[in-house]
Write a structure and sequence with these properties.
The complex is a heterodimer of chains A (309) and B (252). Chain A is of the alpha/beta class. Chain A has helices spanning 18-25, 40-48, 62-65, 69-79, 92-104, 212-220, 229-233, 264-267, 286-290, 299-308; strands spanning 3-6, 9-10, 13-14, 31-35, 53-59, 85-89, 110-113, 115-116, 122-126, 131-135, 142-146, 164-168, 178-184, 197-201, 224-227, 254-258, 275-280, 293-296. Chain A has a seven-stranded parallel β-sheet with strand order 7-11-6-1-4-5-12, sandwiched between helices. In chain A, strands 15-14-16-17-18 form a five-stranded parallel β-sheet. In chain A, strand 8 (115-116) and strand 9 (122-126) form a beta hairpin. With 252 residues, chain B is α/β, with parallel strands linked by helices. Chain B has seven helices and 15 strands. A nine-stranded mixed β-sheet of chain B has the order 11-10-9-12-8-1-6-7-13, with helices on both faces. Chain B has a two-stranded antiparallel ribbon with strand order 2-5. A two-stranded antiparallel sheet of chain B has the order 3-4. In chain B, helix 2 crosses helix 5 (191-197). The termini of chain B are far apart. The chains are: A alpha/beta (309), B alpha/beta (252). The structure holds flavin-adenine dinucleotide.
Chain lengths: 309, 252
């Protein structure tokens, strides 16, 4: 089967989760990558180095150099007949693009794919991860977004290799949405989705009035920062750090939750973490039940004590 | 300006979903004891639409649902929350996002809608597809994950919550917008408004009349419970935690 992976656009830059998209695509066959949007040449060069990428399509026309989901969908729609699987990572970029492209081809997308079996049966979580639903792969063309954390790709980059880059210089202009600006979030630490260690804070941080405690522990462990919805709502953390069903799904080697109760919507985002540690003053917090290691303690004394070590 | 808010009902997301214990049939999520509520993101979409009408930017807010008859009472709730009219397209089985988008598209052909506000995803199936699909079928612009919206004449200016930060963009109307939880705080239905809602129009329109076949291309073949996590080890002190983190190489 032939796979087209559309590279994500992360605030106008190459999305490092592209490698996970390639890893998922390789379950079906050869992967061709499409680079568009700002910095598409840079994106194409990076993608060309990924093992398993057969060819890179580089969109160079000004109408595709700006972020425009409508223009890009028009191009992908034109490429669709040459492929069996049209794929993107389940990011805000992929979730915006893939359903639009699917509808243009009179098809429904399958989003948030969590596993691809040998026979190409697809599995995706529903009901906040309480249930896994299995679907047969529909007839091509198939439109998918895949959960990056479910398709690890540490083997995949290779600096010496370079796939063929083919330029597409045609114009695609819908005159619909017009990009104005990107504003990066205040987070200066690694992205929680690709981080090996994530320290997250929840409603329990309210008494401190800031996320300092979480940030200090994160810095001590070289970790990314994450947050529960409540912490985001309280203004303690930025929206893009929200972990959970309606935030980001993560799979670090270590996840430490400080003052997070463990609502099902939050747990949905950490189910794939390899080790979970919960520090919470409530011995019955649901997150304690989901954790590998639970410490019933006040975070405002436990975390400073841990930092002293 | 007329606004349309497609809404769906979902099992109350604060209650746990379990698999049926009935062993005769293949396992399925057991939803029969979980009350239905309006999908939380759709409440944000409806709230924003009602705010636009209250600011006299919009003249009329219609909600539309493609779903079973059991959804009708919650459609009344949407009227109590401020919608002017509700349209129910009865549908007893699971249908695909494409089918739902087609039904809504056909409805739009009958009405002069300028802006569609959708929730960014249904919190039961987590597809997040109908909004962008609808935009594609209509040939309209789209903005997903919107946390701020202003409408000025024929132009919407939005802020989107995207990975790594936010994006600002403008959209010529008509357009489709999907809403993030942070867009607004939905109101509660007041008693007088609940009474008032009983007299608001709630129309039924058949998919057949709209010329749409109710199909599902993405049939689920099997439901499973996720693999259980290993049992929890309770720690008695920070020192114990420190020793575990050190032993596993996380703390040096
Ligand atoms: C449609 C929908 C989608 C949602 N999506 C998400 C999502 O994606 N992600 C998400 O996280 N939530 C989501 N939520 C919200 C979710 O249901 C919970 O409300 C939220 O996760 C609770 O966050 P919390 O545990 O940090 O806060 P709280 O529920 O306020 O819990 C605070 C915890 O901190 C503990 N605590 C307090 N003080 C201390 C202290 N000094 N020391 C130690 N512990 C302390 C308390 O014991 C408690 O367990 C969603 C909800 C809905 C309805």
């Amino acid at each position: 089967m032939k796979v087209l992976l559309v590279i994500g656009d992360r605030l106008g830059e190459y999305d490092p989760l592209t490698v996970n998209g390639v890893a998922a695509g390789l379950h079906f066959g050869d992967v061709t990558v499409l680079a568009a949007g700002p910095n598409s040449q840079k994106k194409a060069d990076k993608a060309a180095q990924i093992n398993g990428v057969k060819e890179v399509l580089l969109a160079t026309h000004p109408t595709l150099q700006k972020p425009s989901v409508e223009n890009l969908a028009m191009l992908v729609n034109e490429l669709t007949p040459s492929f069996d699987i049209i794929l993107a990572v389940t990011s805000t970029f992929g979730s915006d693009l893939i359903p639009r492209v699917a509808a243009l081809a009179n098809s429904s997308p399958i989003t948030g794919v969590w596993a691809i079996a040998k026979d190409h049966t697809l599995t995706r979580p529903i009901n906040a991860g309480a249930v896994l639903a299995q679907l047969n792969l529909p007839k091509p063309p198939v439109f998918l977004t895949i959960r990056p954390t479910a398709f690890p790709a540490n083997f995949i980059s290779n600096n010496t290799r370079k796939a063929k880059i083919t330029v597409i210089d045609k114009s695609y202009e819908c005159n619909l949405s017009q990009h104005k600006t990107y504003t990066p979030s205040a987070n200066v630490r690694p992205d929680p989705v690709s981080a090996k260690i994530v320290v997250a804070g929840g409603g329990g941080l309210q008494a401190g009035g800031s996320f300092e405690l979480v940030e200090k522990l994160a810095d001590r462990l070289n970790a990314a920062v994450g947050a529960s919805r409540t912490a985001v709502d309280m203004g303690l953390a930025s929206n893009d750090l929200q972990i959970g069903q309606t935030g980001r799904c993560i799979a670090p080697d270590l996840y430490i939750a400080l003052g997070i109760s463990g609502a099902i919507q939050h747990l949905a985002g950490i189910k794939d973490a390899r080790m979970i540690v919960s520090i919470n003053s409530d011995p019955n917090a649901p997150l304690h039940g989901a954790a590998d290691f639970a410490l019933t303690a006040d975070i405002f004394s436990a975390v400073p004590e841990l930092l002293k070590k | 300006m007329k606004l349309l808010v497609p809404i769906k009902m979902v099992p109350n997301p604060t209650l746990p979903v379990r698999m049926s214990r009935d062993t005769a049939t293949p396992q399925k999520p057991d939803l029969k004891d979980i009350p239905l509520v309006i999908n939380p993101f759709d409440e944000n979409a409806l709230e924003e639409a009602v705010l636009l009408r209250e600011a006299q930017i919009a003249s009329n807010v219609t909600v539309i649902s493609v779903g079973p008859d059991s959804w009708v009472s919650e459609m009344r709730t949407a009227l109590a929350l401020g919608a002017d009219k509700a349209v129910h397209i009865p549908c007893d089985k699971q249908v695909s996002p494409l089918t739902i988008a087609k039904c809504i598209k056909q409805f739009i052909a009958l009405e002069d809608i300028q802006l569609i506000l959708c929730g960014r995803q249904g919190v039961d199936a987590d597809n997040g597809s109908v909004g962008p699909m609808l935009a594609a079928l209509l040939g309209w612009g789209q903005a997903t994950f919107v946390s701020k919206l202003s409408v000025n004449g024929n132009l919407a200016t939005v802020k989107r919550e995207v990975d790594g930060g936010t994006q600002e963009l403008t959209l010529p109307l008509p357009a489709v917008i999907t809403t993030d939880l942070s867009l607004n705080t939905p109101r509660y239905a007041s008693l007088p408004n609940i009474m008032l809602a009983k007299r608001k129009p709630l129309e039924t329109l058949s998919a057949q009349k709209l010329g749409v076949e109710l199909t599902h291309e993405l049939e689920i073949i099997k439901y499973q419970t996720p693999p259980p996590r290993p049992p929890t080890t309770r720690l008695n002190s920070v020192a114990e935690l420190e020793s575990i983190l050190s032993k596993k190489g996380f703390l040096s």
